[in-house]
Amino acid sequence: MSGSVDSSRSTESGSPPGVDSVKVTGLVSLAHLYSHFFFFVLPPLFPLLRQDLSVSYTELGVLIVVFNIVSALTQLPMGILVDRLDAPKLLTAAVALQGVSLIVMGLAPSYWVLLVMMIPCGLANAVYHPADYSILNRSVAPSMMGRAFSIHTVSGFAGSALAPLTMVAIAAGAGWQFAVAAVGVGGLVVAVILHVYGHILAERIDSSDAEKDAKVEGQDSLKKTAILLMSLPILMGFVFWLFISVAHTGVSYFSVSAFDQMYDMPLATANLALTAFLAASSLGILAGGILSDKTHRHDLIAIYGTLTSGVAILAMGMMDMTFFGVVLAMCIAGFGSGITAPSRDLLVRAVTPKHAMGTVFGFVSTGLNVGGVIAPFVFGWLLDAGRAGEVFLIAGVFQIAIISTVIGIKRASAKQIRD
User: Fold this and answer.
1) pTM here?
2) Which one-letter DSSP state was computed for residue 253?
3) How many alpha carbons lie under 13 Å from residue 194 in its C-beta half-sphere?
């Protein structure tokens, strides 16, 4: 069920083995970095937006909800399109669309403009995961797959880690409108880079892949797709992403406002704690990528990392901490969560037919958006009610609950092999 290609394909034009894999991973990771930077364009500015636009935290949470509803509704269709059309061109178009949307937000600053622009941003976001994983799966050497997944994921977290302090710094000097528009212009630059180097991202499909794809097209593909997506291992993958979405929404999107409420922590200081979480997550992902290429027990990596992270998040909701304690807990939570990410992707990849990689990753990553629809209402309401500590309690419970999905994927895939 592996969806990889032979590493010899990376020797085209006389290039040494692995060179194309590195280039492909770098370009896809650049797009992923931008997509995650976008996630944190607005949340670090929520206190400013709340004051400037005269809205509540709950109303600001609605922005995230709309974004995630659109992504949730369109990610599976986009995944199917990725498996049938040109994934690199779809990825380039998605980056450009997101960039234009951010420019509009900056040029016409109002709550309703932000709300409407969440629609094209959500549509663009629906392309990233299925396109990224499809390109990586078909163009990266098997021996590098774990590290490619980890670099791809860590680039997203790098974008997330860079965004909070960057947005606050630019907003402090030039206003939040300029900061948002500037990120949009950056998106257009990324889109140009992807277009210019699109030939590197061209998916490599061998004859056996082409024959398999033709066979699928000639059968009742919709029925077969539905059966695949409703299989227990894939459903468990969906729930994995759903739970991690709820947990990370609490910590990543609402911890800054929670620390402000719990400790009267200055905005820049609270964002420093968030940056520590995101940076530690990135280090954990890199370590997880190296580790995942050296072992087949990806389930154990995910279980122990998730448990460590969940306990640290719970501690922030149950204990009165100093700033040092907060940063330490955020680092432990981030590293524990990050080390599981490559194993998560490899667990899903192991139960996915290679001709359906975009479709499956489009489906399971929809869990991120479903969680993103529900969680902001809950966390925003808790903050408006003055119950900031419960943000971390709920996030920690969902983080630990991820363990049940890892066990489910492992057991269900083992049963399918026996059957």
Assistant:
1) 0.69
2) I
3) 28
